[in-house]
Known about the structure:
By secondary structure, the chain is α+β, with helices and mostly antiparallel strands.
Amino acid sequence: MEYHVDDQKLEASTFLSLVSQVWPGDYDLQKTQAALHKTQNITAYDGRTLVGCLRLLTDGCFFGTITELLVLPEYQHQGVGSQLLQLAKANTTTLLYFGAQPGLEPFYEKNGCQRSLTSFQINVEASSSAE
């Protein structure tokens, strides 16, 4: 397994191939490429295949968040996600906050993460129509 911290060569098409196998959705290629340029991307490759990716968004001073931690199903339970988390921890100077999908809490706790704030979201369409 080969890991890359701040993978500047990560292409949206490669990333979306991983995403579609882990978290299916309707993603725009151009918006995805723009998003990848705004995050620090920590990647895991098995040969030429992207098998895992952690996206980190931070101000570099006070706050950071993990926007996604994705590992191909056939590579889960092999330490890939744990290694991506450790690389994120080793390569940031801020606290990292993130949400976990229900049922994945034990994975994060096993990797030294502590439960923290309750998360909320703001739906842009809903907030503008509520005025």
